[in-house]
Amino acid sequence: MKLDSKYFDAIRVKGKRAADKPRAPECAWEGCDEAGIYKAPMGRDHEGQYLHFCVDHVRQYNKSYNYFSGLDDKDIQRHLKDSLTGDRPTWKMGHNGSAPGDAAKAATATRARRWNGRTRDPFNIFNGEDAPPRPEARRPKVRSLEAKALKTLDLSQQASGEAIRARYKNLVKQLHPDANGGDRGTEDRLREVIQAYKLLKQSGFC
């Protein structure tokens, strides 16, 4: 086929035009013709809407932006309080409106006593005023170190935790230099008492 054929002359190849680039919006600052490629929030009650500024004017806008502009102190405090819960309503804990007043307290106490009968309560949280006292924890075995510490506090090996604490407080008050007129002759004895009490406390005696 000849290159100067009439068929070749009729063929016209259309070149691809470059895709038009989207133009940036103009800067929203009055009197500015720069491209507004930086977004800034429009403000309260216009969430999700933005203004477009150039770099210089977006900086000026951000410096003067105040979300609470036009609100008084009460409205600002209410807004801050509501924002803590995501602007959702809240209710007081433990209130369901089923038993008002004293009846609600009685029902709660009854449930607590019933539940207390079926569960361990090592910290005596659920016991009411009429509940029997909680038995004390099992006393550890007295070894030689603990026996020596009890002797330092002038206590017998059967002394309770409450008696150990009371004796320790009394001895500290007697032996501390601030309590005996600055006499430092009892410092060694005070040091022994403190070490003995620490040992008994770590061993679970008090």
Can you put this structure into words, describing what you see?
It is a single chain. 40% of the residues lie in helices and 4% in strands. The chain has 206 residues and is mostly helical. It has a two-stranded antiparallel ribbon with strand order 1-2. The mean pLDDT is 75.
Radius of gyration, CA atoms, in whole angstroms: 41 Å
Q: Note poorly predicted spans.
A: none
Structural class: mainly alpha
Strand order of the largest sheet: 1-2
**How many strand elements?**
2
How much helix is in the residues? 40-55%
Strand content: under 5%
Distance between the termini: 113 Å
How are the secondary structure elements laid out?
Layout: H1 6-10, E1 38-41, E2 50-53, H2 55-64, H3 73-84, H4 101-116, H5 144-152, H6 161-175, H7 187-202
Antiparallel strand pairs: 1-2
Short description:
This protein has a two-stranded antiparallel ribbon. With 206 residues, it is mainly alpha-helical. It has helices at residues 6-10, 55-64, 73-84, 101-116, 144-152, 161-175, 187-202, and strands at residues 38-41, 50-53.
Please describe the structure with a list of short key phrases separated by commas or semicolons.
single chain
